[in-house]
Amino acid sequence: EDKVVQSPLSLVVHEGDTVTLNCSYEVTNFRSLLWYKQEKKAPTFLFMLTSSGIEKKSGRLSSILDKKELFSILNITATQTGDSAIYLCAAYGGSQGNLIFGKGTKLSVKP
Amino acid sequence: DAGITQSPRHKVTETGTPVTLRCHQTENHRYMYWYRQDPGHGLRLIHYSYGVKDTDKGEVSDGYSVSRSKTEDFLLTLESATSSQTSVYFCAARRQDYTDTQYFGPGTRLTVL
What is the CATH classification number for the domain harbouring B19? Predict the structure, then answer.
């Protein structure tokens, strides 16, 4: 069975901390790994990763994929209260060729 | 926001009544998806469409049907709503075969009493 597992499920940090969110996957016909941020509304796209070892970066957020060990990490440096959200990881693949989502990591950033 | 809207945004209904949720997109996306999101389960795929009149079942399709008669509209129908279908429903769209990124609509909060 295809699955995507995120850890931790929830995390509380203080402003200025650096956090690392984890995503492991076991997905047949894997093609890409995507990260989304969800505040109290729809998920918004952050990154798509297809190649191992190539870091994608956007401001204080960065992500990398390891296709040998089947995982990805999302790093957020110098966290701000606006980073508080649920971060979703999804792997593209499976028998139908769709996104398979993890359950998300709920990040709370305290002032 | 990839031009995706959903209607209604909130709905309260009673068990046994039919309900139709609408997803409308303005950017000619080929692929469209319906998900439900529940605490502890994350996003789960209900049905998806890969073109006009072309649809297929997802992970949690029981009790749901879909239709896509035009590129821009994807309808989700609960034939006889049950309390277990209380959820937040998201529509998503993807442009072409070679792009994996899905863009999401704002969601519909459905409560079945």
Answer: 2.60.40.10
- Neighboring chain B residues of A45 at a CB cutoff of 8 Å: 101-103
DSSP string for A60-97:
TEEEEEETTTTEEEEEE-S--GGG-EEEEEEEEETTTT
Domain ranges for chain A, please list them. Answer: 3-106
Question: For domain A3-106, which architecture applies?
Answer: Sandwich (2.60)
d(CA A55, CA A65): 8
Can you tell me the mean pLDDT for B50-57? Answer: 94
Task: Give the CA dihedral A87, B110, B78, B81, nearest 10 degrees.
Answer: 130
Give me the domain span that covers residue B86.
4-97
Nearest-CB residue to B56 (from A44, A96, A101) = A96
Average pLDDT over residues A83-90: 97
Chain A residue nearest residue B107, CA to CA? A42
Kindly state whether residue B22 falls inside one of the protein's structural domains: yes
pLDDT tens profile B20-41: 999 999 988 999 999 999 988 8
Chain B nearest-CA residue for A101:
B43
Q: pLDDT tens digits for A36-82?
A: 999 988 999 999 999 888 899 999 999 999 999 999 999 999 999 99
Contacts of B40 in chain A (CB under 8 A): 103
Chain mean pLDDT for chain A = 95
Measured CB to CB, residues of chain B less than 8 Å from chain A are: 1, 33, 40-45, 48, 56, 58, 90, 100-107
Contact present, A100 and A4 (Cβ < 8 Å): yes
Distance from CA of A41 to the nearest CA of B (A): 6
